[in-house]
Amino acid sequence: MIVTKPAAAMAVSFFATCRAGVAVLALGACAAFADYRDTVPVLRIGVVENHVALTNPLKLEAVQQAFSKTLGIPIEIIRMRSYAALVDAHASGRVGYAIHSARSYAATDAACGCVIPFRTPVAADGSSGFRSVLAVGDSVTRPISELRIAYSNEDSVSGWQIPHQAMQAGSLETPQLVRAGTVAATITLYGAGEADGFFGWVPDIATAAGSDPSLLFGGWNRQMVLESDPVRVIWSSQRIPYGPHALHRSLPDDLLAALGAFLDQMPENEPGLLDIFEPFFAGGYVTPGLKDYENLQGLVVAPPDGGDG
């Protein structure tokens, strides 16, 4: 005997099935439209305490509000006492986003392999990196091993760490080294004839000659350099990119994209904010290449308390 369901029961079953289908579709739609705002309750940005934005409460508030308004999530800017503290906080995930020096990024990457450099700041001269150089008097012809070469101090990436790495690797002869203490003292020693040359840096600008003495130290103390005996560059390192903005890999890709877009648009949409957020880089940002920071791997032996200069 064939048993058929009453019409009312069939109708209930039909509508229940429809409701279940709608629920599944709704869940699918929610999943499709879910973004970082559903999973990141707050974004913590680590910044070393000497950053200009941290010296003025109004500037700090302006930065936090701009990021929060654009991203649609709360922002906390976390003050770090040193780059070593920043490395520890970023590697452990206590901050998700950090503004690094070149060396502190290298140390963080070596510590955990858990950070992504997604933007590099650009200087007003158009450079997004620098090269360590050895500059000597124009009339100096002796081998490098016989020269007295001044350098600032052991914390300087360009003035000591990169040349020292090259000397250890055998790609640069070791001269007679004279510790000056500061960049100004380095130039003074050379100008007084107490050194045959010095280690410094020049911005890496595609349209400029890397041997132009006026570019030494990014043009800082240019008059002092030019008033000394003429110099020429006899050794240059590989390009070292400026310290990047980096995100912890545990954070969503769409947050990375949103942050990148915000920084890209900042020079045009928020020029005043750029002046606060990047006081030393007025040219905006570029997206670094996947291998841009590989040259920094040899800089992580000592604690990364120094900056990029």
From TrEMBL:
Stretches of the chain forming a coiled coil according to its record: none
* UniProt entry keywords in alphabetical sequence: Signal
User: What span is annotated as the signal peptide, if there is one?
Assistant: 1-34
Does the record's keyword annotation contain Signal?
yes
Q: Name one Pfam family in it.
A: Phosphonate-bd
Which PANTHER family does the record match to this protein? PHOSPHONATES-BINDING PERIPLASMIC PROTEIN (PTHR35841:SF1)
Q: What is this protein called?
A: ABC-type phosphate/phosphonate transport system, periplasmic component
Q: Supply the source organism for this entry.
A: Hoeflea phototrophica (strain DSM 17068 / NCIMB 14078 / DFL-43)
List the taxonomic lineage: Bacteria, Pseudomonadati, Pseudomonadota, Alphaproteobacteria, Hyphomicrobiales
